[in-house]
Write a structure and sequence with these properties.
By secondary structure, the chain is α+β, with helices and mostly antiparallel strands. It is built from eight helices and ten strands. It folds into three domains: 80 residues, Integrase, N-terminal zinc-binding domain (Arc Repressor Mutant, subunit A, Orthogonal Bundle), CATH 1.10.10; 87 residues, Alpha-Beta Plaits; 50 residues, no CATH class. The longest helix has 19 residues. One of its GO terms (molecular function) is DNA binding.
Length: 242
């Protein structure tokens, strides 16, 4: 994925997320709750919970909301029982799509996901049809940073790799469970990431432009707008113009 395309896609993603802040809070609360349920309420001993809390703080979620979600997960407060589901399929141009959901009603969720695919030119596939193309990975992106100093600090903090491109974007790759620790260590070393997350990264990509890119964006938006959808991952690289 070219540096410019990567950066343009990330900036576009952030703009859409800002417009959906209310839904982001709901998704984060679900993630915190299930992370606490599965791994306990101590973020120092539960990397998934720590990651969810980092995202909540980055989104300026009030600390009381975060704590209530943890308490629901650990059973200290009564809450809804969520199950995790993953759906796989194909978008425009055969681009791979994976959709992670948390729901209290599997029948409703699969119907909603299938409808979003069908209505927007995609197809819901079978389990495993595209998962082989994705790797679970953490990343942090930096611009205007000293490459040598950042690389040294990142590798010392436990990062797996550091990649710089011709556009001046430096990407730090981590194991999923190490993401929060590496992010904190780099902040303490004076490096603040422009963007970062733990994601499912495609090993091969499908580049789309013009009308195809717009159609693919509509499919992604339709899936992300579903109440039960937590994350949408795709192999599509979209050139949506300026």
């Amino acid at each position: 994925m070219a540096g410019h395309s990567k950066w343009a896609n990330i900036q576009h993603k952030k703009a859409r997320q800002d417009a959906k802040r209310g839904k982001i809070f709901t998704k984060l609360i679900k993630e915190i709750t299930i992370a606490a349920k599965q791994g306990g309420g101590d973020p120092n001993a539960n990397p998934r919970l720590r990651l969810a809390m980092e995202k909540a703080w980055d989104a300026n979620m009030p600390k009381d909301n975060v704590q209530r979600a943890i308490d629901k997960g650990t059973g200290n407060l009564e809450g809804v029982e969520y199950i995790e589901l993953r759906y796989e399929g194909y978008g425009i141009g055969g681009a791979a799509v994976m959709v992670d959901c948390m729901t209290d009603n599997k029948t409703r969720t699969v119907a909603d996901v299938r409808h979003a695919f069908t209505k927007n030119g995609g197809n819901l596939g079978t389990d495993g049809c595209v998962a082989f193309n994705f790797v679970h990975q953490g990343y942090l992106l930096y611009t205007n940073a000293d490459e040598d100093a950042l690389m040294e600090a990142a590798l010392e903090a436990g990062a797996e790799d550091v990649i710089a491109d011709e556009e001046g974007v430096i990407e730090v790759i981590t194991a999923p469970t190490d993401w929060a620790n590496v992010k904190t260590a780099l902040e303490q070393a004076g490096f603040k990431a422009e963007d970062g997350d733990v994601t499912m990264r495609p090993q091969t990509t499908t580049e789309l432009s013009g009308a195809e890119a717009e159609k693919m964006q509509k499919l992604i938006d339709a899936l992300e707008d579903l109440d039960d959808v937590q994350n949408v991952y795709t192999s599509a690289v979209l050139d949506l113009g300026d």
